[in-house]
Each structure stands twice: as structure tokens, then as C-alpha cells.
């Protein structure tokens, strides 16, 4: 999946509603709707530096489907 226009320079996008972070580069075509729904809700944020470690530092956890694939 390509990165959304507003996040072309960010790999990790967080969902403020449930403290979940998505690795945009690892999302497949089947998961595209998840990111589209998040962007439509306008309850998202990006991290600086754009790393998973920074997302975790702010209390976010990697999306469960991506955690399973990361093992």
C-alpha cells in the first residue's frame, strides 16, 4: 500500500482512539480500509522521530495483525 498523501514522509500513524499505531509500509491491500477509516475520523497522529520506539514511548502499541507478522 502506498503512503497517504498527508503522510508521505511518515511510516507510523497512530490512532488516538485506541492507542494503536499502524506501520503504513507493512499494510497490505486488504488492510487499506483500516487506514482510510482512520484518516476519515481525523483522530490520528504521526510521531517524530518516525519510529516504532517513539510510538511505544508515547504509549502506543503496534496493531495486533502486524505484531503477529513481525514475529
Task: Give structural attributes.
alpha+beta, 71 residues, 4-stranded mixed β-sheet, 32% helix, 4 strands, 3 helices
Largest sheet: 4 strands, mixed
Portion in strands: 15-25%
Mean pLDDT: 91
Please report the total strand number as a whole number. Answer: 4
**What's the helix-strand series?**
EEHEHEH
Alpha-carbon distance between the two ends: 21 Å
Uncertain stretches of 5 or more adjacent residues:
none
The domain tally reads 1
The coarse overall form would be globular
User: Strands of the largest sheet, in order across it?
Assistant: 3-1-2-4
The number of helical runs is 3
The amount of helix comes to 25-40%
- Return the structural class: alpha+beta
Over the alpha carbons, how many angstroms does the gyration radius reach? 11 Å
Task: Explain how this protein is built.
The chain is an alpha+beta fold and 71 residues long. The chain has one domain. The chain has 3 helices and 4 strands. The protein has helices spanning 32-41, 52-57, 64-70; strands spanning 12-15, 20-23, 44-46, 61-62. A 4-stranded mixed beta sheet has the order 3-1-2-4. The longest helix is centred in the middle third of the chain and has 10 residues, at 32-41. The protein is globular, with a radius of gyration of 11 Å. The two termini are 21 Å apart. The mean pLDDT is 91.
Write the layout of secondary structure elements.
Layout: E1 12-15, E2 20-23, H1 32-41, E3 44-46, H2 52-57, E4 61-62, H3 64-70
Parallel strand pairs: 2-4
Antiparallel strand pairs: 1-2, 1-3
Describe the structure concisely for a colleague.
The protein is of the alpha+beta class and 71 residues long.
Amino acid at each position: 500500500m502506498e503512503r497517504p498523501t498527508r503522510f508521505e514522509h511518515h511510516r507510523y500513524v497512530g490512532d488516538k482512539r485506541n492507542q494503536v499505531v499502524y506501520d503504513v509500509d507493512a499494510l497490505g491491500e486488504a488492510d487499506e480500509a483500516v487506514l482510510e477509516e482512520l484518516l476519515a475520523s481525523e483522530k490520528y497522529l504521526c510521531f517524530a522521530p518516525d519510529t516504532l520506539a517513539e510510538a511505544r514511548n508515547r504509549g502506543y502499541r503496534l496493531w495486533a495483525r502486524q505484531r503477529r507478522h513481525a514475529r
